[in-house]
N-acetylmuramoyl-L-alanine amidase
Amino acid sequence: MRGPHRAARAPGDHNRPTMASDSSMQPLGPGDRGPAVADVHAALRALTLLPAGGAAEEASLDQAVYDAATELAVRHFQQVRGLSVDGRVGEETYRALSEARWSLGDRLLHHDPVRPMRGDDVTNLQDRLHELGYDAGPVDGVFGPETERGLRAFQRDYGLTSDGTCGPATLRALRQLGRKVTGGRPQLLRQSASFVESGPHLIGRRIVVDPGHGGTDTGFTAGETTEADLVLDLASRIEGRLAAAGATVYLTRGRDQDPSPAERTAFANDAHADLFLSLHTDAHSSEHARGVSSYYYGTGSGASSTVGEQFANLVRREVVVRTGLLDLGSHPKTWDLLRMSRMPAVRLDVGYLSHPVDRLLLLDARLRSTVASAVLAAVQRLFLPAEADPPTGTFILPAKR
């Protein structure tokens, strides 16, 4: 079942440092110059990724140049933050640079429903509350209503003014207390437990399938084949199989729509989805680039065994075993598409349209049907108890009686 496309405005930043961006900004890259580049330089110097007092700092705002040192520093930042590493500063990298400037204690933190506060200080606050046993929602660096509720509960329990604002007194209390929850990150333990308790069936599950690109954004094009059309066809096949198994399935777009990442995640959040799967193919100039990869939300330094990571591994392995495509592994990323989803979210890149073998396979409708069956098996296995989970590539949904 396709849900109607719903627009959603991405949350903005509150009390942002000097650097700002908008959704229409053009990415900055080598050779660019001007005040926006100077702003990037300032952010990189604050993070000690560029030396202070260098030529970039001495130049006037209009003369600041995006040089090789800037590109190298940006690539390093993107790698560490789990972003796409291209050495260019687009909207997502701009926002990540801005958020990375904040440390816990730099400012008063509170919930603003119009312009939610974002930053590494919010991430640190969420982590600290979870360690103390308080549910502050996803650790996503956005101070939303769940974080406010967790903070108020902490303040109330420890005799502080329960105003939902993280100021000096609250910070002192947070720093004086030891960790209460052990054995993994508490919000992830809760999420895993809820999946186990919900039962091994798909009836009533809400699953959002997101075909990448769309509308005028065709993605990679090979002859008459476009990535947008190919993943839409694949999404429709997955939709049919999941629906037949009892799930309620929504697609984020039709053929002529191209929602932004914020709109796609807002759609899934509004649908109160249990799972979110985004579909893409890949492309690269290298003649050797081919295979299947999957991505889940993570910084690379947090705890593993999250539901998102588990689903990313399940779906990738099912596709690889059933199709023979090359296995490129699963990887943590902080892309907003994964980060802002309030449910386990995975992006699956099903082969390289730029590779002749992968392209030939993907153009075969039988292989796309096999991929859809693999996704169904992975979703079903996600809800099975460990002792009942069959080997990869062997699970077949029991026929209805």
User: Anything to note?
Assistant: The chain has three domains: 35-100, 120-182, 199-388. The chain has 14 helices and eight strands. The beta strands are 206-211, 221-222, 225-226, 248-251, 275-282, 292-297, 327-333, 345-352.
